[in-house]
Amino acid sequence: MDNKKEDLNEKKQFFIDNISKFCDKCGNPFSIEDVNIIQNTGVSSIIHFSCSNCKSKHIATFVSPIGMSSRVSLNTDLDTKEIKKFAMRNETSIQEILEIYKFLKNNTKIVL
Ligand SMILES: [Zn+2]
C-alpha cells in the first residue's frame, strides 16, 4: 500500500471535481494522470491540467477557504518545471497566487 500516492491521487481527483472536469477545448474528461499539482499549501493551490486528447494545457489556482478557482489556457512554451520554479521563488500567499495567475494570463515567457 502506497498511502502517499493514494493521498495524492485523492487530491488530484478533488481538483478535477472542483476546478475542471473536462477539457475546455475538446471536452475530453480529465483523469488524474492529466493533473499535476504544482503547489499545494493547504490554503491555496496551483494545478496544471494537460489534456491527453488535444494536448491543450491549463493552469488553475484554487483558494480553499473561499472555494475560489480560476484557470487560464497555457501557451506551450511554458512547461510545468518553469511554472514550478516561478511559484517556488517565495512562500506563496494568496495575493501572490493571484499575481502568478495574472502573470500567466498576460505573459507567455517567464523572465526572472
Ligand atoms: Zn482537450
Bound molecules: zinc ion
DSSP summary, beta strand count: 4
Order of helices and strands: HEEEEHH
Gyration radius, to the nearest Å?
Answer: 13 Å
Give the CA-based shape: globular
Mean pLDDT: 79
Distance between the termini: 41 Å
**Category from helices, strands and their pairing:** alpha+beta
The tally of domains stands at 1
Specify the biggest β-sheet: 4 strands, antiparallel
| Parts with pLDDT < 50 across at least 5 consecutive residues | 108-112
What do these coordinates show?
The chain contains 3 helices and 4 strands, in the order αββββαα. With 112 residues, it is an alpha+beta fold. The chain has one domain. The chain has a 4-stranded antiparallel sheet, with helices on both faces. A hairpin with a 6-residue loop joins strand 2 and strand 3. The radius of gyration is 13 Å and the shape is globular. The C terminus is likely disordered. The site of zinc ion (ZN) has 8 residues, from loops.
